[in-house]
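ok trying this again, last paste got cut off
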Amino acid sequence: MVHSLAGWVALVAMILVGPRLGRFGRRGRVIEGHSLPIAALGVFLLWFGWFGFNAGSTFAFTADAPMIMVNTALAGAVGGLVGMAANDFSTPVKVENESEASQVASFHNAVQEKFNIEIDRRKIAIQRLADLANHDPLTGLGNRRLFLDELRRAMNEAHPARQGALMFLDLDGFKAVNDTVGHDAGDTVLKDVASRLRGIFGERGVLGRLGGDEFAVVVEALEMPERDAAARASRFVDNLDAPFTHGEQRLRIGVSVGIVLFGDGALATVKGLTKRADEAMYEAKLAGKGTFRFFGRTADA
């Protein structure tokens, strides 16, 4: 069978002008190895020749030729999908000197490197936006939105054998420090409060800064709810009663804590529960500050 004229033209063209890093040429005139157009032309001619060889003679175009071309295209597509599944296209392509596709591979690697850098930058930017949307930028704690989402999750998972506690913490002497010493001192105190709370909790609780000098805590899976919640609140009070340092100044702040238990079978909403915790916190302030109070268990949500 006589192969197509297109196939032979492609073969001859590949030999004469293929991307060979200058191996072919005469009289000192060689093809520049960095010539991307030549490399692209070589790849195109290979593709064109492949269709030509598979489709039969261009002088005898039969009814079978379109189906042969379609089958060739489908085989290429399947090969591409298999390649995508079996290979990591984020890794550079090996460049072999003196090969037909070396310049295409080199260009691919350069583009891929820039693409990967841009992807990494975008991932970092997206992560930063997510952090800003869900975390307090000063303390790094979850903001009100994230905290309430976590509270809702904890309430859904709680049951009488796995009760939890919501605690609202309000810093007693923060306003005086902010007004007399300055906002820098206030920021230092807020960051130190967050650090102390993390030290008490570790990874076993949900912490959040609701705004200003108000923090909130969710403690889950309490074995003896009232006793365990009271012990945790007492640690908060004692820990935050210790002085804070700003430069050479020692600042005393203190905290009032309001506690409400959940998961005992009584119906409750996030709004109702936060309202109870807030009221219990003000009861602690009325009791002299630097202490904690439970909200009455029989109050309406």
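PB: full thing came through this time. The longest strand covers residues 163-171.
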